[in-house]
Amino acid sequence: RLVESGGGLVQAGGSLRLSCAASGRTFSNYAMGWFRQAPGKEREFVATINWSGGSTRYTGSVKGRFTISRDNAKNTVYLQMNSLKPEDTAVYYCAPMGGITTAQAGLSWGQGTQVTVSS
Length: 119
Fold this sequence. Notes:
The chain has 119 residues and is an all-beta fold. It is 0% helix and 46% strand. The protein has no helices and 10 strands. The radius of gyration is 13 Å and the shape is globular.
């Protein structure tokens, strides 16, 4: 089970830190990722981190602004979002990774956390 939190309403240029608490699985065995879905659009990859936290990857539009991290002792993955833009507005989800930029197949997604960036 995945529970995302930390979203909210923020002005452009502001920051938010998202958290994702995982239960019911061996968290430290999995690469984890963040995805987002804006209104009327498909869910898209945002960032991923390998099992140890030593390797990360980002989609181009968030590079240099977002930082993914994890704490395996707490079964939690984070997404620090800085310099937020209105186009970052979306519902954000975390998920175990199935491929380089894709979530595991057949995944039961959490409820997500809403991020709204005003201009």
